[in-house]
């Protein structure tokens, strides 16, 4: 299994934290890093990331901005999660820039996990996704489903499922130009004809924009929770914190042995 992250200049610092966490906690693997920006300083990224990949293999991709038929970075990053399959022959674990490992682990621990390991009902989010669900079900000739794998990373893409899409560039063209709000994870859930997971597996925890400021006591819990291997801090969560609250996160990172901080 390979590791894949689609990142951008806006998340440069968090990407360094992720790279350091891979070096510290993840057994050797290949990490594909796709830079999703209109203007890319490849040398900057190579210089910053390379020191963390003595035991891992870094594959840095800098696609032309116009290679994906979408005007915004949010849509393009979804497309890259599919097009990366052109380079791979194995399953791959998708991370966002906000994710980083917090204890020793092996990427193969995600081998038998569907998606992120958890289920969610999209009806709890209102009716926004109903046109998307219907479009994807029609495309795949299956019944539409409102229960999907949670739209969270880390998230597993099985290569045999992605290969069913045929010409991946033609698929991406359809995916981005279809007149619905795109979601790579809703599509993947329909692609594998996902049914609600009766035995959920959760190896991650994320601080989302609406999450309350976390305390040192709460952070220390994750050191004891042996199943949580990946932590995530959303960019907009960080933006709402004051200096003291950011210090709480940084002190925790220091305790874990990190040099990079928020």
Main sheet, how many strands, which sense, barrel? Answer: 5 strands, mixed
Total helices: the number is 10
The chain-level mean pLDDT equals: 94
What's the arrangement of strands in the largest beta sheet? 3-2-1-4-8
Bulk shape: globular
Estimate percent helicity: 25-40%
Q: In terms of structural class, how would the helical and strand content be classed?
A: alpha/beta
Strand content: 15-25%
pLDDT < 50 runs, ≥5 residues: none
Describe the structure.
The chain has helices at residues 12-25, 42-49, 73-83, 130-140, 159-163, 168-177, 184-191, 216-224, 235-239, 243-255, and strands at 2-7, 30-35, 57-61, 92-95, 99-101, 119-121, 147-149, 155-157, 204-207, 230-233. The chain has ten helices and ten strands. A five-stranded mixed sheet has the order 3-2-1-4-8, with helices on both faces. Strands 5-10-9 form a three-stranded mixed sheet. The protein has a two-stranded antiparallel ribbon with strand order 6-7. The protein has one domain (2-202): Spore Coat Polysaccharide Biosynthesis Protein SpsA, Chain A.
Comma- or semicolon-separated keywords:
262 residues; alpha/beta; Spore Coat Polysaccharide Biosynthesis Protein SpsA, Chain A; five-stranded mixed sheet; three-stranded mixed sheet; 10 strands; 36% helix
Question: What's the gist of this structure?
Answer:
This protein has 262 residues and is an alpha/beta fold. The protein has helices spanning 12-25, 42-49, 73-83, 130-140, 159-163, 168-177, 184-191, 216-224, 235-239, 243-255, and strands spanning 2-7, 30-35, 57-61, 92-95, 99-101, 119-121, 147-149, 155-157, 204-207, 230-233.
